[in-house]
Write a structure and sequence with these properties.
The chain is mainly alpha-helical and about 400 residues long. It contains 16 helices and no strands.
């Protein structure tokens, strides 16, 4: 359990290099955007160290004023380098570094940590969080770039000068209108909405039954069967797609609606098995024995006793299966036909043949849908934990 300690001001010979190093890291990106990363590193270190010297020296007791000063200087510097967008970014940088200077200089970083931690342990504590944050930024940045580009008033995949100046004429909903008015895009959306729900139903049905069966201790070769059932998550997708193509072509399912549905169901079943199996870990099996003692048959016991408790895991697995089917493109290219052209297939075709900017609008819509579904999964996970008594209500 963490024990709060009192913040103690750190000596300048410790605070200035640390704060300057943070400024040098930020200077890498600012310098790269202006033609010289080396100059950005040097300038970032010198500027932040100088600001820290002033803020922790003459303005030590005027923290609010010092932080406003740093924000103002950041906005002015950003405006000089990149105009209005640079001013906005500079303001954000100034707000962060105004807080960071006092967080380090006044020793506030030690407050939430146990007092017995060594300097190396404290360093690793924050370094680990910074590494995780850097990975998150690396993964999320492409999405954050695509979303504003979808509002581009021009048919470009880059930010126009009007967009960078935040001018209203640089933004438009034309790509969204193109998506909702195009027969090709609407046909692809219709196919996705016909395929994904049916594949999800099959995945949930078979995956739930498999998870319940494999959770029984008397089932032989449980580990081997589990490995086979979740193999679509492990085997490279191109191999699975090629195998499905040759198999379906021999039994007459290649290029049919049912063939695509079965292929997507096979990809979604592992997600259902994993989530339902995780839910069954905390399931009290004495409840099913009690229901049997009261005269309930196995079907009644399943739907009246077991299913309500594992339902959050079943729905979570179903949502993952739906996302997998709705976003999948490789398998449908192998086992589908022109009549089963889904939304990801249409996006792939748009990138390969005509470079349609409507793809950006579709990508943004899919991101919003995926985020909403994942948020639902998280809410269901927490509800499942509360039902199993693993977390406070």
């Amino acid at each position: 359990m963490a024990v709060e300690t009192q913040a103690i001001k750190k000596p300048l010979n410790f605070a200035l290099p640390v704060i300057g190093g943070a400024g040098a890291f930020a200077g890498i990106f600012v310098g790269a955007a202006n033609g010289s990363s080396a100059l950005g590193i040097i300038a970032g270190f010198v500027i932040l160290a100088a600001l820290a010297f002033v803020a922790l020296g003459p303005l030590e007791s005027q923290e609010r004023m010092a932080r406003w000063l740093v924000m103002g200087l950041g906005a002015v510097g950003g405006f000089v380098l990149s105009g209005l967008p640079g001013a906005v970014l500079g303001l954000l940088f100034g707000w962060f570094f105004g807080w960071f200077i006092y967080w380090v200089g006044m020793g506030r970083y030690r407050v939430p940590l146990p007092p017995y931690l060594t300097a190396g342990q404290v360093l690793w504590h924050y370094a680990f969080r910074n590494i995780c944050g850097a990975i998150f930024v690396f993964l999320i940045t492409p999405i954050l770039v695509v979303m504003p580009l979808s509002f581009n008033a021009q048919d470009f995949f880059t930010f126009t000068p009007e967009m960078l100046r935040f001018e209203a004429e640089g933004y438009s909903l034309k790509h969204y209108r193109d998506f909702f008015s195009s027969s090709e895009w609407q046909g692809a959306l219709k196919n996705s909405l016909l395929i994904a729900p049916m594949a999800t139903l099959l995945s949930v049905g078979f995956g739930t039954l498999a998870a319940i069966g494999l959770s029984q201790p008397h089932v032989p070769f449980r580990r081997a069967i589990m490995a086979i059932l979740i193999s679509p998550m492990i085997v490279p997708l191109i191999i699975s797609a090629a195998g499905m193509y040759f198999f379906y072509s021999r039994i007459g399912l290649q290029g049919t609606y049912m063939g695509v549905v079965l292929a997507h169901a096979a990809l979604g079943i592992p997600f259902v098995i994993i989530t339902v199996t995780a839910t069954l870990v905390g399931f009290d099996r004495s409840l099913t024995r009690a229901a049997a003692n009261m005269g309930a048959d196995p079907v009644t016991t399943f739907f009246r006793v077991q299913m309500p408790l594992i339902l959050p895991g079943v729905i979570s697995g179903g949502l993952f299966a739906f996302i997998t089917s709705f976003d999948e493109v490789v398998v449908v290219l192998f086992v589908g036909s022109a009549n089963q052209q889904t939304l990801p297939w249409q996006m792939f075709t748009g990138l390969r043949e005509q470079i349609s900017p409507t793809i950006l609008a579709v990508a943004t819509i899919l991101v919003v849908i995926s985020v909403a579904l994942l948020a639902t999964v998280e809410l269901l996970r927490r509800r499942s934990e509360r039902l199993r008594g693993m977390s406070p209500s």
